[in-house]
Amino acid sequence: MVFSSIIIDMSRLDDIVSLSKRRGFIFPGSDVYGGMAGTWDYGPLGVMLKRKLMSEWWQYFVEERDDMYGIDAAIIMNPRTWVASGHTTTFSDPLVECGDCHGRFRADKLGKTADGHDLSAKVTKTELNKAKVKCPTCGKSNWGEVKQFNMMFKTSVGAVEDATALAYLRPETAQGIFTNYKNVVDTIYPDLPFGLAQQGKAFRNEISPRDFIFRSREFEQMEIEYFVSPDEWEESFEHWLKACHEFLEKRIGLPSDCIHELDVPAEDRAHYSKRTIDIEFDYPIGREELMGLAYRTDFDLGNIQRESGKSMEYRRKDSGATFIPHVIEPSFGVERLFMAVLSSAYDEDEVGGEKRIVMRLPEHLAPYRFCVSPLLKNKPELVKKAQKVYQDLKAKYHNVTWDDSGNIGKRYRKQDEIGTPKCIVIDFDTLEDDTVTVRDRDTTKQKRIKIADL
Ligand code: GAP
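^ thats the input. predicted complex w/ glycyl-adenosine-5'-phosphate below
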């Protein structure tokens, strides 16, 4: 099943945030202490959905292919990693301070230029003041110099806090792959082209975290570095672009008319990229980047070779030719995928004259496939029978839930909100003829089915 192709209502973000908290998908990070900007915690339902998305990705991009291998590298890496990769010098966003209220903002996200264009990452103090771009906090237009702010989180390693112990939390999972490229080549001898995949946390000290989980300071990436011979990069780039579309549309089921490609112009590309296509999605906040596909050339392996003094060359088994492979990188953010899924699934309709919220999640992604309930919880014979059905389904499908709270109408509303496709109710007829009521989330229609046929 895939999501039906719906026009996504742009005003839905607040509803999605509120449902996420109310039903245990996502809570604000450190909520009990008033929060921690840019961090979010996944609750019981959110963890189930997130894991399904991540394992669907792993299955599609790693397990079903012959040319892909996985790795799981450390988050804290030797700081030379970030010198070689260019992150210590170039991984920054433009930061500007309001001369009146002293609020600090990401300069390129403050509005438009005087002639109506988006502000670029190279925007200056003069441009901001000339365009009378307003401070989001105090409304004045009195901007200071725009400075580059490095987004890597610093930490120190060991029982000392001096400069020699300085380390960073990784801002991308990619470098854990590049630094292991030679280990993999020397241990499993893969034929080129081949790829390495990794899923894991990444950290960026975003100047303005915003839009729910969309721009967080701690988030999860799913990245592939695909190593090719330099003359094959274009072909491989096309292959991965197609594969990314297929994953998003066929495996996750996102509506294809909400997915768009942006060929990123040279001045907006990351420092390592010679070509980038961003796959954008129509989120409730507008059309924004869901993932990126980049041609990273031999930038990373070349830099590692220089910094470490160790050869990163690949020797072809057939011709004996040696060269540094080039790299195609499909890079997904789990939070961006999660938010695309939630915003595609969220729907409101009317049932029996009452407004209903329903998460139309595809069956393979829904946290629970079935909910089992006794019609009345104070009738031991119904509870006993319902428990038997529940235990049998649970043994077979695992993600089955039990609900005997409130009345049956309330249970349906709750299961609709968490996206459970089918509710199974055990009533007095069940005791007579071994049939149950199966109620469908999307149509709300009910059918009588034999337990043996469930
Ligand atoms: N290794 C390449 C790389 O990290 P990127 O475009 O900076 O490229 C890749 O990030 C993906 O990571 C993005 O397309 C997005 O899905 C996700 N991402 C980046 N910054 C994020 C943030 N602050 N919050 C949530 N997801 C983020």
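The longest strand covers residues 286-297.
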